[in-house]
Design brief:
The protein has two domains: 31 residues, no CATH class; 115 residues, H-NOX domain (Alpha-Beta Complex), CATH 3.90.1520. Helices cover 55% and strands 17% of the residues. A four-stranded antiparallel β-sheet has the order 1-2-4-3, with helices on one face. β3 and β4 form a beta hairpin. α1 crosses α2 and α5 packs across α6. The longest helix has 23 residues. The radius of gyration is 17 Å and the shape is globular. The chain starts with a helix and ends in a 5-residue tail after the last strand.
Length: 165
């Protein structure tokens, strides 16, 4: 690694209050689980302002229809590209990582319940869209899924891990 790149990483790590090792590990993890598939899957970055303008024009029925289609395919494809199978543990790994693109994510586990809170700051329709894409994922694995809260800035959801038989 060249000195300029290393120095910038050190600066970023210090400003975030983490070690250079933690920062580099998170960069590598994100690359392995997400960035390396961006071009292949045709993913494009959009600003929150753009998302807000798009999602505010959509009615609830259209949102749910698109979310079901997107939630039922794109995350599964990402999981199959980076893991050997589409199952609950791999789904939870992908959700925690991929949702960080939208803003701050709080991920917590309480026994069999996995809570995901996404603070995105886009709009309520975007919260609904995220909830419905996650519902489609849960449905694909026959998981119990609950939306705990939706507003303009945030969506809070819960997946229940299936009990092994």
């Amino acid at each position: 690694m060249d000195k300029k790149t290393y120095d910038e990483l050190v600066c970023d790590a210090e400003s975030n209050g983490i070690s250079i090792n933690s920062l580099i590990n998170s960069i590598i993890k994100r690359h392995l689980l997400w960035d390396r598939f961006v071009e292949e899957m045709g993913l494009v970055p959009l600003t929150k302002r753009t998302l807000k303008k798009i999602f505010r024009t959509m009615d609830e029925e259209t949102l749910k229809k698109i979310a079901k289609d997107v939630g039922g395919t794109v995350p599964q494809e990402l999981i199959y590209l980076s893991h050997d199978k589409f199952d609950f543990p791999n789904l939870m790994k992908m959700i925690e990582l991929s949702n960080s693109r939208f803003g701050k994510v709080q991920y917590n586990v309480n026994d069999t319940k996995h809570g995901i809170n996404i603070l995105h700051g886009v709009c309520e329709n975007f919260s609904l869209f995220l909830a419905e894409t996650h519902r489609a994922l849960a449905d694909n694995l026959s998981l119990k899924f609950t939306v705990e809260h939706i507003d303009n800035n945030m969506v809070c959801m819960e997946f229940e891990k299936p009990i092994a038989s």
